[in-house]
Amino acid sequence: MSIRWTRVAPQLALSPALAVTMVAFIGSILWTITLSLTRSRRVPDYGIDWTEWSRQYARLFNDDGWTIALWNLITLGIGSALAIVFGFILAAMIDREKRGESFFRTVFLYPLAVSLIVTGVAWRWILNPDMGLEATLQRWGFEGVSLNWLAQGDTAMYAIILASVWQSAGFYMALMIAGLKSINSEIWSAARLDGVGLWRLYTEIIIPMMKFTFLTCAILLSLGVIKAFDIVLAMTNGGPGQSTWVPAYFVINALAQKQNLGYASAAAVMMLVLTAVVFLPLVLLTAWQARRRNAA
Amino acid sequence: MTDIASAATIGATIDSRPIVRRRKKRITGRSVAVLVFLTICALFFCVPLYVVLTTSLKTMDEIRQGQIFALPQTWTLEAWRFAWFEACSGINCNGLRVGFWNSVLILVPSLMLSVALSIVTGYALALWDVRWAGTFLFLMFMCAFVPFQIIMYPLIAMTRSIGVYGTIWGVAVVHAVLAMPVLVLIFRNYYKDIPQEIMSAAIMDSGSFWRIFGEIILPMSGNILIVVVILQLTSIWNDYLIGVTFGGFNTQPMTVNLANMVTVSTGTASYNVDMAAALLTAIPPLLIYFLVGKFFVAGITAGAIKG
Description:
The complex is a heterodimer of chains A (296) and B (307).
Chain A: H1 2-36, H2 55-61, H3 64-96, H4 101-109, H5 116-126, H6 133-139, H7 153-181, H8 186-193, H9 198-209, H10 211-227, H11 230-235, H12 247-256, H13 261-295
Chain B: H1 2-13, H2 29-56, H3 60-63, H4 78-85, H5 97-127, H6 133-143, H7 148-161, H8 168-191, H9 196-205, H10 209-217, H11 222-238, H12 241-246, H13 254-263, H14 271-291, H15 293-302
Helix pairs in contact in B: 1-15, 2-14, 4-14, 5-8, 5-11, 5-13, 6-8, 8-11, 11-14, 11-15, 13-14, 14-15
Transmembrane segments (chain B): 32-53, 104-128, 135-156, 162-187, 208-231, 286-305
Subcellular location (chain B): Cell membrane
Membrane topology (chain B): Multi-pass membrane protein
């Protein structure tokens, strides 16, 4: 009796999690994919017209808002990559100069503890043209300074990038410090003995050794960028016009404002595709690494 | 997967490294330059906090002078009082305290639900011989990366059909569901290092799944539990999207209240109230960060796969 119980109990204990995975994740994804093939507007309508199954997608790719969202995604991705560069520089400096390590780490990482809504509110205030940083700098004599980025469509994305780099650089710094610490300390002394310059040491030895940390950071960043919503909402609410729309914002807007279920679902499916595009290299790479390790 | 996980464990151990007593280094020109650079960067990181704090303590007349870095001439907590008691979010003018208590009410059940669900799952997957465990784990891993938008409508429909949509419980349940994959992976990675001998001995001794969990596993999970609880505390508190989607008219969390207050403000904007409200929302996670930062860092690096 007790033997059987021990075999049944773990399966039973797993069943809630299994149910959640099957229903809330896998089932829901299939549900959304189904909806994206229908003409559903406000209420779901499950009749699929197979001759026209791609109509929502066709509409999506002809929608200027979606095109803007995709371009903004690329801009945001490239801009936010600065956070990795910045994070690496900070990590390298902190790791070299041990003095004040915990102080600097604490300071660089605190923005991560704060909600992106708060971050957005704070930066929007700093970039306020009449009473914020711009006004202060002009008062100090920098007359030509213009920081009214949020009011113009072509600069609003830069403000969002600035805020997200500020928020996330510390996180990449923490990952990079972990990566740097795992490097064998003898390399530093060996390089010093060989008279390798600091620049060459980093570009030719340290960074190649940390390629996996960089890859992890890059993937985390890309996934974060695809999910970016809160910061856009808090800083610009998509505006001015549609100039700061990103895919995550597009989906919520199609669902909540336009009340167009089929259309929102199609955009959400495209978000999933984007995620998979970022995510598959990771799976393949780790599988490849694991095989190489097994072979060795 | 293992590599991200190992990156995570490295991250988790940074702070627990033994302190090695170093020889006092001579201060060289290069290290002065590095320290100066780091200090400038630190200032860049601190400026927003400073600006928000000083703005929240000024009067609007003073703010209109446009000297964002100046200290307040007359220090006042009026903006804080107003933000807490009277500020309007939509048509509801009871201040941020409504959102604060909603956030607390959301936090408690979702914390308990998500931790209970994932600790048991992680334990079963790591230490018991379950069929399809590898496949299940892989599925969880995939789920951890799924963007929320793709499951959003089905979750709305499901919570509506069981009658929790628009309530505190709706928000809490959705939080628990969305956090599950990541938390299961964290627990499972923690438990998988328990030697098989301990498990074999325990199975011989008492045998029961739940007794081993209660008497052996739970007592040794203190650290990982703290890490997970802090990770969940901050991410639930800072969440906006789930709160705004699943929260009802009077059950929205503090971040949603704050966003409404700031973006949909009627009349003239009072930046001091906005900043006080932002700080009030930021204080709980900041407190956690400054008090138990070590666990926070371990949590975000372990939960890094959350992205």
